[in-house]
Amino acid sequence: MHAKKHLKKLSGKERRFKNDTNHCISKQIVAEAKGTQSGIALEDLTGIRDRTPGYKALAAAIGKWAFYEIAMYIRYKAHMAGIPVYLVDPHYTSQQCSHCGYTSRENRKTQSDFFCIKCGHTDNADINAAKNIASRADVNQPIALRPEPKRSGRWKGKPTTSVVGS
Question: Which of 20, 63, 97, 162 could form a disulfide with 59 if both were Cys (CB 3.0 to 4.6 A apart)?
């Protein structure tokens, strides 16, 4: 086979792979949200390439992946399924403690581990960031638009005391 024909055959392979992967991932995310009757929270990554320091060094690793494309797939599939999608501010989601709210670079010592230096909470760094994204999506919505919270059969709140006064 000639080199030009071979290159032409391979030229769209990476693009097709990304497109297929983004469709599969977005389909799974929307199906999970529909099954649990939940909304979907995404970081608003608009302009990430412009605001990330040292982006050119990261470009080889993350620059080719289409953040916008997967977000659009999720949004249109969620819209078709009637699932709300919330975009949240991505600043410090990986450095903020999902337990106490303390934010510091020292909380994130490695890529995969999160340890809050204030309260001692430990978690996988991605799971901790996902909890922060979810809580920001819920907090930023007006009460009328928030999804109904999942409730178990038992009420787990503190008892209240009514004071009937003089």
Answer: 63
DSSP H/E element including 43: strand 40-43
Collapsed DSSP state (helix, strand, coil) of residue 138: helix
In the chain, the amino acid numbered 144 is: A
Cβ atoms within 10 Å of 78's Cβ, excluding its own: 20
Cα of 111 vs its chain's centroid, Å: 16
Distance between CA atoms of 83 and 39, rounded to whole angstroms?
A: 6
pLDDT above 70 covers a percentage of the chain that reads 72
pLDDT class of 47 with cuts at 50, 70, 90: confident
DSSP 3-20: HHHHHHHHTTHHHHHHHH
d(CA 117, CA 108): 9
